[in-house]
Amino acid sequence: MTKAGWGDFRKGSPRHVEVGLLRDPYRRKRLHAAPLAQGGLLRDPGRRGGFTVAPLAQSGLLRHPCGLGRLTSAPLAQGGFTLIEISIVVFILALVALLVTPKLHRFAGGDARSASRELAGFVAALEQEAVASHTIHRLYYDLEADEYWVTTLVPVGGVLEEGAPVGTKRRLPSDVQFEDVATAHQGLVTSGTAFTQFFPSGAVTRTTIHLRDEDDAKYSLSVNPITGRVVVTDGYVDTVGAS
User: Fold this and answer.
1) Counting Cβ atoms within 10 Å, is residue 236 exposed (0-12), middle (13-18) or buried (19+)?
2) Distance in angstroms between the alpha carbons of the first and the last residue of the chain
3) Residues paired with 210 in a beta bridge
4) What would you report as the CA-atom Rg of the chain, rounded to the nearest whole angstrom?
5) Alpha carbon distance 76, 6 (integer Å)
6) What tens digit of pLDDT does each residue of 112-167 get?
7) What is residue 224's DSSP assignment?
8) Half-sphere exposure for 50 (CA within 13 Å, toward CB)
9) Which residues touch 9 (CB under 8 Å, ≥6 apart)?
10) 35: buried, middle or exposed (CB in 10 Å: 19+, 13-18, 0-12)?
């Protein structure tokens, strides 16, 4: 607001209405703060025609530093943060999360443990499917591509023929791979493919699947040949060779 005398604050003047000032009720040509502007402007205690900031308006209007009776706007960011400061803090937090999350993930078992449990659940579900559908299923493991998929054996002219893969091939997480697979009919398989067969009676080929992650943590999945139950164990366990 520019320097002005009392004449600029005439009755009805929009200038003094905008800053929340009302004419003195005793008509002494003084201006006082409007009731709704208690956190706005107050009359200068030195009666020099200027206005000071009320205690509740510390982030609002301030007295002009030259003492000319002018009012200036206080910085809106007083006591706060600039956009650049906030951006830097967000960037640092994101960087810390990026560095810490993988370590926490590995500490909790990481992808290798999750992949073991997922594969164990898939084996258990496939055993139930073979019983319900009265169909022989085979679960293949590709030790080169770290993939696994299901096929079905169907009788054709008195001979069982293997059909195309059922559904899509599943892949282990990028940092998890097959160490080897041991079955009762194939022995220990360290390359190529191996498979577990599921029968309509509920029987399953005795199988032990070994998974390894990039930190060389190993997990063993042991398939019970009678119940089809899968047990996941930390470390390398050779249940097929021990039987």
Assistant:
1) middle
2) 95
3) 180, 220
4) 40
5) 29
6) 888 999 999 999 999 999 999 999 999 999 999 999 999 999 888 878 888 888 88
7) -
8) 17
9) 15, 16, 21, 23, 31
10) exposed
Q: Are 196 and 186 in contact (CB under 8 A)?
A: no
Cα–Cα distance between 22 and 116 in angstroms, integer?
A: 77
Q: Are 227 and 131 in contact (CB under 8 A)?
A: no
The first and second tokens of residue 100, run together, are 């810490």
Report the predicted TM-score, pTM, of the whole model to 2 decimal places: 0.56
In tens, the pLDDT along 91-121 reads 788 777 766 665 555 554 457 888 999 999 9
Cα 20 to Cα 15: distance, rounded to the nearest angstrom: 9
CA 125: distance to chain centroid?
29
The count of other CB atoms within 10 Å of the CB of residue 120 is 19
**Lookup: tokens for 59:** 């982030």
Buried b (16+ CB within 10 A) or exposed e, 169-186: eeebbeebbbbbbbbeeb
